[in-house]
Amino acid sequence: MTKPLAITIAGAVSLGFLCFGLITACNTISTYDQAAYAQGVNLKVDMLALMDKASGTYEAHTGDISKLNVALAKGYEYDKNRPRNEMTRQMWEVLLFKSPSDPRNGIWPRFLEEWKAAGALKPAEIANDKEDVGRAFDKIIQLESGKIKNAKAD
User: Fold this and answer.
1) Is 150 strand, coil or helix?
2) Which of 43, 78, 112, 114 has an alpha carbon within 20 to 30 A of 23's alpha carbon?
3) Are 136 and 91 in contact (CB under 8 A)?
4) pLDDT at 79
5) Would you state the torsion angle of the CA atoms of residues 112, 118, 123, 129, taken in this order, to the nearest 10 degrees?
6) What stretches in the chain show pLDDT beneath 70?
7) CB 28 within 8 A of CB 84
8) Alpha carbons 36 and 89: distance in angstroms, whole number
């Protein structure tokens, strides 16, 4: 005859501490970073402002496009190299890099290709693309703002 499993109070407390330790020791996402948040907000505003200029010719704005692309690369590199920041990195990649397997990826380069091919875009096209860019940046910004903030030492 088998004995029923009896959990002692000491065993339950030990198990509770072990579970708590495992949960708190294994953060799966980075903590809040004010620089990353500000960078996301600033790049969103800059990109949307540049997109408004797409009613003019692409060639007239190549300097602005190059400057923004450098700033975007810096933002991506900053977030990409933060520990436990995989989700944010993936969100940046949806915005910045085309993927043949997913036509929704590469929102920014696809917009630039569309603008360059057309020479200038119609306001309705620009507005539609700005919504996509705005949503992509909002996800990055909201994820960052929702992260746990480090406790400051007194």
Assistant:
1) coil
2) 78
3) yes
4) 96
5) -30
6) 1-27, 151-154
7) yes
8) 12
